[in-house]
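Write out a sequence, fold above all:
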Amino acid sequence: MARIDRISVDALDERQLGEVRESVLRERDAEAGKPLSVAVMGQTGVGKSSLLNVLFGTRLPVGDGKPVTREPRAITVPGNSDHLVTFWDMPGIGESAAADLEHSAVYLEKLAECDVVIWAIHADSRSVAYDAACLDRLLAQAGPRARAQVLGRLTVVLTKADTLTPPPWIYDMRGPRGSFVPSAPLAARLERKAVHFEQVFVRPWGDLLGAATYNSGEFTLRDDRLDCDAHTVRYRGHFSQEACDAYSAAHPEHAEVFSRLRDNHRVLPCSALFRFNLVPLMLSVVNKLGPTAIFRFERLLDDVAGLGGVPVETMREYGNFVVWDGVRGVNAFDLTRFPF
């Protein structure tokens, strides 16, 4: 934004004030016109391209065998008012040591310049050591200020949550469409995984972390970690579930604000195939952006509720157990035979 060095606004005449206003408006308009940039990073095969496709309607090629994305690919699409949004589909890490070394520079570049970085980890993985070591190496090349900025943009997701069975997933059918939700035992399993990955991947950076969300105007609490102004609520450090629970218990009238702060550091399980948790993921990403970026990004969220719906006919194609009675030589059960 425009700066007025060592000059009080009260000391400016009407002409000078007009020039300042015009300068501020030009910079605001220029900022609003910049392409928003979102990068999806992580190990090869975790479903980065699939996640981009379902979130933003892109048509990136995906594969079940060897890595498909070998170079960063920029996909720029227009918003509702001709502003541009650029999505970066990044090559996966872990293909080989040589490839990781080759990609490290461009990973660091995108970590520094993108408005949002989604770091994807396969939900059916018990180890996060490789991802954590990769992020450590990248951040080691940046100074403390740059590290804090990068970590503030980072959203960690557990992809391909649909691969976690049993316990079963539940398809909540509402007419011709429905939503996939985990059964209670599976939800508990997903939560345990999310907590583990947050402890290993997010918490170690606690001294550099910060959380922020918008202030609707009613939040005025402050302490040694919590601060706010008319527009923003900020927290210094790792806003853990324990911190969220403690603040919400002490100030229940602001529980929604604390929940949004918690989203800054929450590890979110999701599934592109089942369209599970995509709406919370989008809202979490939006919550990380500055005011002008939020304005640009929200134009893509007009139909955000549609991210969570899966048509019944699509659901029927995802899989089916056929029970064969080997003694009688007949099909004992076939889901496709049952109409909905």
